[in-house]
């Protein structure tokens, strides 16, 4: 007797359904998530939205408290241990325009940071105020179609990308940016810079037996040739001078094989370098365990950051058991690794944004585990001597993504997770304002200390 349905199409449909459903429930498979089932009802969402003439300005105005609130102000950075002092001291030197005074920020995050959302606006605001010392790190090619940085674009071919999330490299070497690229003869990357002015390009790669050659072209000028062959395998860097007017840089493999990580772009003046280091589908365990500790420490030391921002939690929020079990251990390991590598750097734990979910009533609420996760992060930051910025509360707290989705124009996509550029600008501005509030408070403390010292009898002025 023949079945009522053709067997092969039925097997295909069932298999397809499993493939798009299982990643929602298995953390290790989260990177293969292709659809957010909770957002399915949004396809039939015909509710009228709130039209706003300028949604970014109106949302920022809404977030300004009318009166001081008891306890920690969510628009400020919680820093009871003075963890941000080293960063503020560097920022003050940069503000004064001291020679070589570059303040560098490494911002590690998940998918919004992958697209340079939040980070692009924070970078722009900081560089407008303190000076532009260069774009910083940029991956050799796009490991994901939506990898993008404001001001830099890349066209590339011939590369195999191995993100740390997938553990494609057995040695755990993924550079500063969390992705390893391997290519052979003919592989290339062509970077296009929106603004000129960069004078140095640093290329991070693996020197190895049998390594191939690279050709670097800046505009119409050959910047150099790099032989990656070496007697023993080791992570390496090479810096090339490039003409400041160059806005296109090409890196081409003339003889393979080669293994690269990222390029870093710098300008010759004091200012800010703000590195946006986002990994799609990542979680805290990737930095804690997927990245080889010694290799990543070397990459951090070479970068010499003044501030390391760790902003994970969106992907973790789907797994309450993980939050209550191994997540604290993973965060402690990240902090320990960063502190061992660059003890002079400040560390800021930055919470995830709100994550919306459509409730049975049809209202877009907040995933229940988000407030719990944020509380866990705040506790971990305090216990481990790190600063903490409560992005979730700063952007409005529970239900914010629902408000953003109903705004006109929308500030968040239909998955209630990923901000649109205008939403990213709000969060980037909130972060910038919080950093400046802390910096101004730091300068005020220095001024008061100086005045107090001057009033002491017998004090000799420096």
Task: Furnish the topology, listing elements before pairings.
Elements: H1 7-21, E1 50-51, H2 55-62, H3 85-95, E2 102-109, H4 111-114, H5 119-130, E3 136-139, E4 152-163, E5 179-193, E6 200-207, E7 213-218, E8 221-227, E9 234-241, E10 248-255, E11 258-266, E12 271-278, H6 284-290, H7 293-303, E13 307-311, H8 320-324, H9 327-341, E14 346-350, E15 356-358, E16 364-366, H10 369-383, E17 387-389, H11 391-394, H12 400-406, E18 407-408, H13 421-455
Parallel strand pairs: 1-18, 2-12, 2-13, 13-14, 14-17
Antiparallel strand pairs: 3-11, 4-5, 5-10, 5-11, 6-9, 6-11, 7-8, 7-10, 15-16
Give an account of the 3D structure.
By secondary structure, this protein is an alpha/beta fold. The protein has 13 helices and 18 strands. It has helices spanning 7-21, 55-62, 85-95, 111-114, 119-130, 284-290, 293-303, 320-324, 327-341, 369-383, 391-394, 400-406, 421-455; strands spanning 50-51, 102-109, 136-139, 152-163, 179-193, 200-207, 213-218, 221-227, 234-241, 248-255, 258-266, 271-278, 307-311, 346-350, 356-358, 364-366, 387-389, 407-408. The strands form four sheets. Strands 3, 4, 5, 6, 7, 8, 9, 10 and 11 form a nine-stranded antiparallel sheet that branches. A five-stranded parallel sheet has the order 12-2-13-14-17, with helices on both faces. The longest helix has 35 residues, at 421-455. It starts with 6 loop residues before the first helix and ends in a 7-residue tail after the last helix. The mean pLDDT is 91.
